[in-house]
Amino acid sequence: MLHRVDLKGIQSWSFLGLIHLLIFWDSRGEQTQAPSSPREGEDVAITIGRPKETGPKFGTMMGVFVPCLQNILGIIYYIRFTWIVGMAGIWQSLVLVSFCGACTFLTGLSLSAIATNGAMKGGGPYYLIGRALGPEVGVSIGLCFFLGNAVAGSMYVLGAVETFLDAVPSAGLFQESVTVVNNTLINGTATAGTATISTPSLHDLQVYGVIVTILLCFIVFGGVKIINKVAPAFLIPVLFSLLCIYLGVFIAPRHNAPKGITGLRLTSLRDNWGSEYQRTNNAGVPDPNGSIYWDFNALVGLFFPAVTGIMAGSNRSASLKDTQRSIPIGTLSATLTTTVMYLLSVLLFGALSTREELLTDRLLTATVAWPAPVVIYIGIILSTLGAALQCLTGAPRLLAAIANDDILPVLNYFKVSEGVEPHAATLFTALICIGCVIIGNLDLITPTITMFFLLCYAGVNLSCFLLDLLDAPSWRPRWKYHHWSLSLVGALLCVGTLFASILNFD
Question: Where, by residue number, does the polypeptide cross the bilayer (predicted)?
Fold first, then answer.
C-alpha cells in the first residue's frame, strides 16, 4: 500500500538510501518494475484519467475445468450412451470408455507440457501449438481442429432436433414408424419380440436441422459478445439434468415406467454383461434386414466425440490468472471426472433395464429422469444449442487466425483485421455445418468428427514426443508429469483408433 510522502523529505535522501529502497521494493512478492526515464528519440505515451481496465481473470475452476466439462458432456451421453451399453454390453462398454478416455488423458498430458513451455498469451489451441512447435505444425493441427468443430456443430443441431421430435412427435412433417425385431436374452432365456414404434423422419431432421442452423448463424452474426457472456449459463441445465437422471435411476422403477425398466437389479446386470451386436436401420432400431452392422470399432467412432473438448480451457488462455497452472490441472481434472462418470453410468444403465429397452429407447435417460422427462428434453435442447453456438463462434475465429498467418495462400479470403468479425469464415463454417446436417443421421456424422479430432490429438502427441526425444533448446516445459513414452503411446492410440474408425465408416 502506497503512502503519501512529503517532497521535502525526498530531497534529503541520500543516494544509498534510494538504492536500499529499490532493493526492498523489488524483493516483495509482486515484483513491480519502476518506470524508466525516456531516452532521446523515444515516444512517450501519457495516459489521462483512469487506467484502462482489463477483463476479469479466472482461476482453474471457472476458467478451465467448467468449460472443459461443458464441452465434454454432450449429446452422445444423453441420446446414444444407453444404446451403446445395450449393443456392446457392460464389459465392452467399460473397455470402450477406458480406451477413449486414455486417448484424451494422454493428449491432455502432452497439451499440458506444451502449455507450460514458456510464457503463454491468448489465442487458443492454434496459437498455443503453433508458437511452441512452429507455424506449419500449428496450421495442420489447427485445420483438423477447425473441421472437427465445424462438423460437431451439425452433430449438436441434429441432436437438438432429434430430441425435440422425440418429445413432440406431432411436430413432425413426415410421420415415420418402424417395426422393431429384437432377439435378446431376458433372465437368461432367449426371446424374440416385435413392436411398432415411431421415429423421427430423415426429412424432418433435414428440414428442421437446416432451419435451426440458419437461425443460429443469424445469432452468431449479430451477437458474438452476448454468446460469450452467457455461455457459462448453458452449463446449468446440463448439471441439473444429470442430477435428475441419477435420481431417477436410483428410484426406478416408478409406477408409470415401461416394463423394460427393472430398476437396479443384479439379474439385469448379468443379462446385459455380454455384447449383442445387431443390424439396425438408419434410425438405429434393431432390424435383421438393416443396412448398418455395428461392432466394437464402429462404436468407438460413435462414442469418441463424447470425450473430446479437452482444449476448451486453452481457448480461454487470455482470461486465466495463471495459465501455467490452470490449464494442466483443469484439463486433466475434467478428463478424469467425465471418464469416471461414464464408467459409473455404464454399470448403472446396464443394471437398470432389459437389453431390449436399452436398444429401442434412445432417450432412456429422459424416460427414467425424475421428476419428468420434460426436464431432460429442455436440458438437452439448451445444452446442445449452446454447444452449437460455441462451434459456430469459435471455429470461424480459428480459421481466420490460420489465414492471417499467411501459411496457406488458399485461405487468404478468410483474413480479417484485428477487432473485425470473421464474416467470411463464419459463412464458410455454416455451409459445412448445413452440408452435414443434410445427411440427417447423427450416427454417420460422429465418425467424421472422430477422425478430425483424432488427427488433431495425434499431432499434439507426436509433436510433444519429438520435442521431448530431441531435447530441443526451446523445449523447457514446467509441467513435470510428462514423458516422451507417454506422448508416443498417446499418438499410437490415436492413430490406431483412427484406422479402426475408418475401417467401419461406410
Answer: 58-79, 91-116, 137-158, 207-227, 234-252, 292-314, 326-349, 369-389, 424-442, 448-469, 481-503
Mean pLDDT of the chain: 80
Give the pairing type, strands 177-186 and 189-198. antiparallel
Q: Which three cell numbers stand for residue 174?
A: 413426415
Does some domain include residue 312? yes
Question: Helix, strand, or coil here: 112?
Answer: helix
pTM of the model as a whole: 0.82
Strand 189-198 to 279-280 pairing? unpaired
What is the biggest distance separating any 2 CA atoms in the chain, rounded to whole angstroms? 100
Beta strands in 66-215 (DSSP E): 177-186, 189-198
Please indicate, yes or no, if residue 107 is contained in any of the structural domains.
Answer: yes
Confidence category of residue 422, pLDDT binned at 50, 70, 90:
confident
Instruction: Give the angle 303-308-312 at the CA atoms, nearest 5°.
Output: 160
Closest CA to 313 of 42, 93, 81, 114: 114
Count of residues making up the chain: 506
- pLDDT over 90, % of the chain: 37
Residue 394 lies in a domain: yes
Average pLDDT over residues 67-77: 85
Cα(462)–Cα(484) distance, integer angstroms: 9
Condensed to tens digits (0 to 9), the pLDDT of residues 336-369 reads 999 999 999 999 999 999 999 999 888 899 999 9
Asked whether 482 and 112 are in contact (CB, 8 A), the reply is yes
- What are the phi and psi torsion angles at 403 (to 5°)? -65, -35
Q: Which residue reads 478428463 in cell numbers?
A: 335
**Cis ω on the peptide bond leading into residue 56 (within 30° of 0)?**
no
Cα–Cα nearest to 390, from 235, 239, 165: 235
Q: Which residue has the cell 435420481?
A: 247
Distance separating alpha carbons of residues 487 and 473, to the nearest angstrom: 19
Sequence-distant (6+) residues with CB within 8 A of 408 are 139, 402
**364: Cβ–Cβ under 8 A, 6 or more apart, which residues?**
82, 83, 261, 349, 352, 353, 357, 358
Q: Please, which residues bridge with residue 177 across strands?
A: 198
> 353 lies in which domain range?
76-503
Give me the CATH number covering residue 126: 1.20.1740.10
CA distance readout (Å), 151 to 23, 45, 374, 433, 447: 56, 46, 28, 6, 10
CA distance 357 to 364: 8
Task: Classify each residue of 289-303 as buried b or exposed e, where b means 16 or more C-beta atoms within 10 Å of its C-beta.
Answer: ebebebebbbbbbbb
Domains: count for the chain: 1
